[in-house]
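Lay summary. Proteins are chains of building blocks that fold into shapes, and those shapes determine what they do. In this project we predict the shape from the chain. Here is one chain we studied, written as its sequence of building blocks.
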Amino acid sequence: MDFTFVQMWAQMGVIAKLVVIVLVIMSIITVAVTVERVVIFRRADTQSQGYALIVKEMLAKGLFKEAAAAANNFKGSHIAPVIGAGLSEFVNARALSGSGKFDLHGAVQGAIERTTQRQMASLRKGLSALATIGSTAPFVGLFGTTFGIINSFQGMAKEGGGGLGSIAAGIAEALITTAVGIGVAIAAVLLYNVFTAKVEGLEVDTHESAGEIVAMLAKEQASR
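And here is the predicted shape, written in a compact code that computers can read:
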């Protein structure tokens, strides 16, 4: 028997073939999520750097409203929506703070925190799929291997026996699903860990930038 993919595919049972198809689908999902997240993270870094340069100049001139509006041009940034939300809240609520009954700092902080949570949830999009694939792919492959071995022994029983070669061939066919499952799981887990670390880094950047803006707005309000 030739250990080619076509030959082994032909010898597989229905369950084993379905398992291979499921693992292929998992692989496609892993690749799709990887490409999509890489594009999103690269865009976030690029646009955040661009917005940081613009907003720094605007805030130095006291153009808070313009700085908030500029955030709409950097929707791919992980920082711009957060800073924009804080600045918008500051501009809209600054007039109400004159009575002394309105907590301007709390309003700005609340707007920033809500927007940050939404941004982090958006950055984590698709990572749960990688985690699920990483944890289930080996078991899916093992499931296919179990039925592959059963199919192999059933074939041997129908033929009335078989030598070591037929047994080895059957087991090799069955173990394909386990090997594929492990390979898919390794890739998914590695990518999940890499992307999770990236999201954590972006979250730290967001909190640091937001903290600087809150402190600056607090000084601005105190000087009035």
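What the prediction tells us: The radius of gyration is 28 Å.
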